[in-house]
């Protein structure tokens, strides 16, 4: 059986969509998309970041991230400022409003993932997370 064949990327995409489906309704109730949430999460966890760092840490392509950042800034959830060490570079951080919104929604998102764990089984979910962490840390090498 060729487990790592063409089905693997499709299965991973389906798994991603399935897991995100648990939180989309919560985010939508608060006027956020899943991508916007990922940006807020990165900024909450890591503080000030460059757009390049946010793109890498949130797995969002730069062109999409530019639109997302513009929307979050217009909504008052993030602030952009010049980097103190390089005035040409911008750093992005959560605004006070962004911090409040994140802290309000984060427990709701956690609860949704707890429901996923209950549905799937904590052991199965734990095993899945462990395998995915190992998989994402594997570097691609041209064979």
What class would the helix/strand composition place it in? mainly alpha
Identify low-pLDDT runs: none
- Tally of extended strands? 2
What portion of residues belong to β-strands? 5-15%
- Do you know the CATH architecture? Orthogonal Bundle
CATH topology group: Arc Repressor Mutant, subunit A
Put simply, the count of helices is 7
Strand arrangement within the widest β-sheet reads 1-2
Can you tell me the CATH class?
Mainly Alpha
Q: Main beta sheet: strand number and arrangement? A: 2 strands, antiparallel
Helical content band: 55-70%
Question: What is the count of distinct domains?
Answer: 1
Radius of gyration: 17 Å
C-alpha end-to-end distance: 20 Å
Give me the strand/helix succession: HHHHHEEHH
Mean pLDDT: 89
Overview of the molecule:
- With 143 residues, the protein is mainly alpha-helical.
- It has one domain: Orthogonal Bundle (Arc Repressor Mutant, subunit A).
- 66% of the residues lie in helices and 7% in strands.
- It has helices at 7-21, 24-29, 34-46, 51-58, 62-74, 96-120, 122-136; strands at 78-82, 90-94.
- A two-stranded antiparallel ribbon has the order 1-2.
- Helix 3 packs across helix 4 (51-58) and helix 6 packs across helix 7.
- The longest helix has 25 residues, at 96-120.
């Amino acid at each position: 059986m060729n487990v790592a064949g063409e089905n693997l990327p499709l299965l991973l995409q389906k798994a991603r969509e399935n897991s995100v489906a648990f939180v989309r309704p919560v985010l939508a109730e608060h006027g956020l998309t899943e991508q916007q949430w990922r940006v807020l999460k990165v900024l909450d966890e890591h503080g000030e970041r460059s757009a390049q760092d946010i793109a890498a840490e949130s797995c969002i392509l730069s062109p999409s991230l530019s639109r997302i950042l513009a929307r979050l800034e217009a909504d008052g959830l993030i602030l952009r400022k010049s980097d103190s060490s390089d005035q040409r570079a911008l750093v992005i951080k959560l605004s006070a409003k962004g911090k409040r919104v994140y802290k309000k929604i984060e427990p709701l998102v956690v609860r949704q993932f707890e429901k996923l764990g209950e549905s799937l089984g904590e052991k199965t979910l734990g095993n899945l997370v462990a395998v995915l962490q190992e998989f994402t840390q594997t570097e691609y090498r041209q064979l």
